[in-house]
Amino acid sequence: MTVTATLTHDTTTEGLDFITYANGETAMASETSICSCPKHSEAIAYWDYIVADKMLIVRYKSSSRFYYYEQVPYTVIFGLLTADSLGAYIAKEVKPNYGTMKVGGK
């Protein structure tokens, strides 16, 4: 199965682009970050990738905490954008390979 991601530019929102990615999800992209509140994921409520810091921030639907995964390379984010399942991809490719900080929530 081939999954694609499409980048579009919204002329009404200066400096923002939108990425339509796996499962019909939409992410907002700027020079500094890419973020999404997935509608179809059973596990992921929100994710944000901070480009300069190589930091992936994730909030799972099962928790109010934000998890900050450090030193995540761009290639992992490209994989996330084309993954069939965001939760499974993060569990397999991010959690075991990148350090995290838990911030806030229960």
Quaternary state of this entry equals single chain
Average pLDDT rating: 86
Helical region count?
A: 2
Secondary structural class: alpha+beta
The N- to C-terminal Cα distance equals 37 Å
Largest sheet, spatial ordering of strands: 1-2-3-4-5-6-7-8
Extract low-pLDDT stretches.
none
**Fraction of residues in H or I helices:** 10-25%
- What best-fitting shape do the alpha-carbon axes yield? globular
Major sheet description? 8 strands, antiparallel
* Strand count: 8
Order of helices and strands: EEEEEEEHHE
Percentage of β-strand residues: 35-45%
How many domains, as an integer? 1
Alpha-carbon Rg, integer: 13 Å
Compact description:
The chain is 16% helix and 37% strand. It has helices spanning 74-81, 86-94, and strands at residues 6-9, 17-21, 25-29, 33-36, 44-50, 55-60, 66-69, 100-103.
Account of the 3D structure:
This protein has 106 residues and is α+β, with helices and mostly antiparallel strands. The protein has one domain (6-103). It is 16% helix and 37% strand. The chain has helices spanning 74-81, 86-94, and strands spanning 6-9, 17-21, 25-29, 33-36, 44-50, 55-60, 66-69, 100-103. It has an 8-stranded antiparallel β-sheet, covered by helices on one side. Strand 3 and strand 4 form a beta hairpin. Helix 1 runs antiparallel to helix 2 (86-94). The longest helix is centred in the C-terminal third of the chain and has 9 residues, at 86-94. The chain is globular and about 35 Å long. It starts with 5 loop residues before the first strand and ends with a strand. The mean pLDDT is 86.
